[in-house]
Amino acid sequence: MKYTVIIMSAVAAVLLGTAWFMGGAPLMTEGLRSGIFMLVPIIPILLAAFFAAGLITELISKELIYRWLGEGAGWRGPLLGTLAGALVPGGPFFFYPLIATLYASGASGGTVFSFVAAKTLWSVGRVPLEIAFVGTELTLIRLGVTFFLPMLVGMLVNIFFRRFSERIRRDVQLIRNRRGGMND
């Protein structure tokens, strides 16, 4: 997380300097104002997402997560991750804090990767919009071609990348602990 902040800050500084060089203070100020206007509508979504993730951490026991979504769940973890990813509403401001919470609480890497793959490929809330823009036939072909991918991704992660999965879980827990002592 620290490196992401450093890189994004460096990019913002370069863009700020470029704006100053190209148009001086007026262009720089307008760019900063545009950024603030993009941020303000997202703040309520961010708050709701982080509150939901925090509440899930407290309401669902680690034992339950491990049994249904963890390494002990076998194929059920990726299956449930796939279904949840397809059905959970909201964008990345909601589902990334949610999967970080589940991961830190004991969900397997396969479950989390299935969730992300299904959210990306199958998001049920997006299907009507997709049909409206590209038609029913293309949407059904895309859904058919990708039908088994989220579950397959999760199972492959659990089989071949279990060691990496544990390292990622530790990283997620470290990030969460640095942000105000969320102890899992």
Plain-language structure description:
The chain has 2 domains: 1-44; 60-178, no CATH class. The longest helix is centred in the N-terminal third of the chain and has 38 residues, at 2-39. The two termini are 18 Å apart. By secondary structure, it is mainly α. The chain contains 10 helices and no strands. It is globular, with a radius of gyration of 20 Å. It has helices spanning 2-39, 43-59, 62-69, 76-87, 92-104, 109-122, 127-134, 136-145, 149-160, 162-178.
Largest pleated sheet: none
Low-confidence stretches: none
Strand segment tally: 0
- Please tally the helical runs, counting DSSP H or I stretches of 4 or more residues: 10
Produce the secondary structure layout:
Layout: H1 2-39, H2 43-59, H3 62-69, H4 76-87, H5 92-104, H6 109-122, H7 127-134, H8 136-145, H9 149-160, H10 162-178
A few lines on this structure:
This protein is mainly α. It contains ten helices and no strands.
Characteristics of this structure?
mainly alpha
